[in-house]
Write a sequence for this structure.
């Protein structure tokens, strides 16, 4: 198909998608049937993001410290951006994640998200509370570290790792690396 606008099925634009994007759409297709009203807009969005990355903003490097980087999207004003996750820590049932947004000119905006238990209630004992305070201070330091001074998590091209700091009752956190698919 010559144009995404003429596509009737998501598979009409499959040649413009990455392997992971095709796999994801196939998974949705198995789950929801051949619902093109659901699948085609997702495929078009992926194709648009892929084209923008190849032509307009492919030169923008991923944010230092990023463990997951989403695809490029446009905001309401037509500006391109992509969201990313960075370091994360777990203390009891609380998760602290550095995440952010990168603009097409390379500017990076980071913030810290704090999540509790699924039921919205997180109970911490005194030791866990002290550890959470330490984690929040560590996250604050990372937020204040300039991007060019932040270490990369993995040197293997195309390989995205998620680094998380598991905080137990012990005083010293340790790093746990696990693969996270984009």
């Amino acid at each position: 198909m010559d144009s995404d606008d003429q596509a009737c099925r998501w598979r009409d634009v499959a040649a413009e998608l990455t392997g992971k994007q095709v796999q994801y759409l196939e998974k949705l297709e198995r789950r929801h049937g051949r619902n093109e009203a659901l699948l085609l807009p997702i495929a078009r969005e992926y194709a648009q993001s892929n084209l923008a990355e190849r032509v307009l903003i492919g030169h923008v490097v991923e944010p230092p410290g990023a463990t997951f980087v989403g695809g490029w999207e446009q905001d309401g004003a037509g500006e391109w951006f992509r969201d990313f996750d960075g370091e994360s820590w777990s203390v009891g049932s609380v998760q602290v994640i550095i995440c952010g947004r990168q603009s097409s000119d390379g500017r990076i905006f980071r913030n810290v998200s704090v999540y509790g238990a699924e039921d919205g209630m997180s109970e911490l004992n005194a030791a866990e509370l002290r550890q959470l305070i330490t984690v929040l201070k560590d996250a604050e330091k990372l937020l204040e570290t300039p991007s060019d001074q932040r270490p990369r998590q993995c040197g293997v091209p195309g390989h995205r790792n998620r680094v998380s700091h598991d905080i137990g009752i012990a005083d010293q956190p340790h790093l746990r690396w696990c693969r996270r698919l984009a």
User: Anything to note?
Assistant: The chain has two domains: 4-55, 68-179. The helical segments are 19-32, 36-55, 126-144. Residues 68-179 form one domain. The longest helix spans residues 36-55.
